[in-house]
Design goal:
Blueprint (H helix, E strand, L loop, with lengths): L5 H16 L8 H15 L1 H16 L1 H5 L16 H4 L4 H8 L10 H9 L1 H7 L1 H9 L1 H21 L1
Helix pairs in contact: 1-10, 2-3, 2-6, 2-7, 2-10, 3-7
Length: about 160
């Protein structure tokens, strides 16, 4: 399944099917884990937040190139992407609220989330800066990644 938020509505029937047929499955979470890393950076504040803002700004600049390979599976309305100048002024709470997949949150911005999702190449371009930020913000990132994988994916499917 590669369906973003839609997959969560299918987890109950999938869990029942797995139990009925004693089956297994592979859960691909690389994109989700990348997003949780960025959330963890932003939530950590300081340099982590600055880097998360920078990732968004660079992704916004390269939006067309980043989105092209995913045109069939994403739906980003450029008019609903905040300008980088606005995001540079966001607090940790504002950034994470916009990015974290919580459809009940009024600040959640699925267009921003999708852009950052396809913007993973930005991290590669940042090289050691990104890797050092991951190390510096490891506790916050680890908590976000673990909660997402366990609570939102593994528990609904297997527990």
């Amino acid at each position: 399944m590669h369906s973003g938020s839609d997959k969560f509505s299918l987890y109950g029937p999938i869990r029942r099917g797995l139990a009925r047929f004693n089956a297994g499955l592979h859960i691909k979470t690389a994109g989700t884990t990348w997003l949780e890393e960025v959330i963890g950076l932003a939530e950590a504040g300081g340099e982590g937040l600055a880097l998360a803002r920078e990732i968004y700004g660079k992704a916004l600049e390269k939006r067309e190139a980043l989105c092209a390979p995913y045109a069939a599976v994403i739906d980003i309305d450029p008019a609903r992407l905040p300008p980088a100048s606005v995001v540079r002024g966001w607090t940790s709470a504002q950034f994470t609220a916009a990015l974290r997949h919580d459809q009940a949150c009024p600040e959640f911005n699925p267009h921003l989330r999708q852009l950052i999702h396809v913007g993973y190449k930005i991290a590669a371009q940042l090289g050691d800066r990104y890797l050092h930020a991951l190390e510096a913000c490891a506790p916050t990132i680890s908590r976000n990644v673990t909660e997402n994988l366990f609570d939102r994916h593994l528990k609904p499917l297997f527990l």
